[in-house]
Structures are given as C-alpha cells and as structure tokens.
Design goal:
The chain is of the alpha/beta class and 236 residues long. 38% of the residues lie in helices and 22% in strands.
Length: 236
C-alpha cells in the first residue's frame, strides 16, 4: 500500500516533481500558455453555458494550468485523479472560486471508465493533458481503452488538451496555431521551431480517437528550462 502511494506521489506525469515545477513556473514560464488555454476553454463552454453544466475533469492534477474563474462558473465539478496531493493543492489554487467543493474520485480510468461515466451521466468531460501520457503509460491497457473511448463519448460534450510533441528542443515564442483539421508534423514544426534547428523530439501519437477534420488548436508549453511541449487541443 505504501509503495503504491509513493509511486503516485513521485509519478513524473504529475506528483511531487510536477507540482514543484508548477509552483515555480506557473506565473512566469507558463503564463502565456495558461492564458491561451483559458481562452480556448472559455470558447468551448462559456460562463453562461457553464452555469447549467456539470464538469468532469480527467486527471487534472492540481489544475495548475486551469483558469479558476472558468472552473468556478460550472454548476458542479468532479475530478478523477490518483495523485494524493492533487485535491489539496487544487483547493488552495481554486477553492475560493468554486461554488461547491469538488468531488474527488481516486479511480483507475482505464478499468472503471464506463462506471465513471455512468455515475456522471450529464457531465461534460475535460481530459487534462492526459491522453498523450495515457498512450505511453500502459500500452496494452491504453490501446483497449482508446478503442472504447469514441463510442463512450457519443452524445456528450467533451474536450481534450494533450501532448503532441515533447523534448529538450526549445520552441520559439509563437502564438497559438489554429488549424481546420489535425495539423501534420511539418506544419507544427514550422510554426513552433526555428528554421534549421535540430534535435530529438518525442511524438505522443494517438490512435484516431477524435475526427481528424474538426478544428484543432496548438500551443507551446515551456514546461521547464530543459523541457518544451507542443499541446494539441480538440473539442466537441
């Protein structure tokens, strides 16, 4: 039991290291990314719509990049996250803006997905930088879950922002990129990286979960001085 708890606290996708970075950089290096993400989320669900909408957050961690005012505009918010530190830090960051306490659920998303949706039948679903990591953390379980995911979201409002690329290769200061369809690698590299720059990048390739011909948006996220991400956003 103690070993499982520590693995969640030290999880590189969230946990202690991520929280430490967030507290250090969220109001400096992350500021532009956070503002761009907030604008996209507000386009997805306006404050007027949110007032009559319940929201289910998938792996929000402490919500370091989520806008407090937007979160607080929903009728209610529930969150699924295994990180034991998430709810404490989330409350410190966003508690004053929330109309009611967030309902936290420590569940395995892969194993209990259908049950989680069934218990939140009318909730809009926001995947919080989860899908790109899910594809790598347990390939066999993730592949099976990804196959079920599109059908499970039918008729439900949803949005996802997730890793498309990551690595030590610095991104240039660039505005968000809007694309009428899922952007190809050449388009993203041209927009976010200096011409002629070379280095290794990890592509967080997802199976075709969402339609490729709907609008997508992309942002640069300078996570740390030696780590840069390109985030992809897609929404219903």
């Amino acid at each position: 039991m103690a070993g499982k708890l520590w693995s969640r606290i030290l999880n590189p996708g969230g946990g202690l290291r991520y929280h430490s970075r967030a507290l250090r950089y969220r109001n400096s290096r992350w500021q532009d990314y956070r503002q761009q993400l907030a604008s996209w989320l507000e386009e997805w669900t306006s404050a007027a719509e949110a007032a009559s909408t319940d929201l289910l957050l998938i792996a929000p961690s402490a919500g370091h990049c989520l806008p407090s005012t937007w979160l607080g505009s929903f009728r209610s918010v529930a969150a699924i996250d295994l990180d034991p530190m998430a709810r404490i830090l989330f409350r410190r960051l966003h508690g004053a803006s929330m109309p009611a306490p967030v309902g936290w659920i420590a569940s395995d998303v892969f194993q209990e997905w259908e049950a989680l949706l069934a218990s939140h039948p009318d909730h809009a679903v926001l995947f919080c930088n989860f899908l790109g990591q899910a594809a790598e953390c347990d390939e066999a379980r993730a592949a099976e879950w990804f196959a079920r995911l599109p059908m499970s979201l039918t008729g439900r409002r949803w949005a996802s922002f997730h890793d498309r690329y990551s690595g030590e290769l610095p991104t240039k200061a660039a505005s968000a990129l809007d694309s009428p369809h899922r952007a190809d690698s050449e388009t993203l590299l041209r927009h976010f990286y200096e011409k002629g720059i070379s280095g290794e990048l990890t592509e967080h390739e997802l199976p075709p979960i969402f339609p490729q011909d709907r609008p997508y948006r992309y942002w640069s996220w300078p996570l740390a001085p030696d780590q840069f991400h390109i985030i992809e956003g897609c929404r219903s």
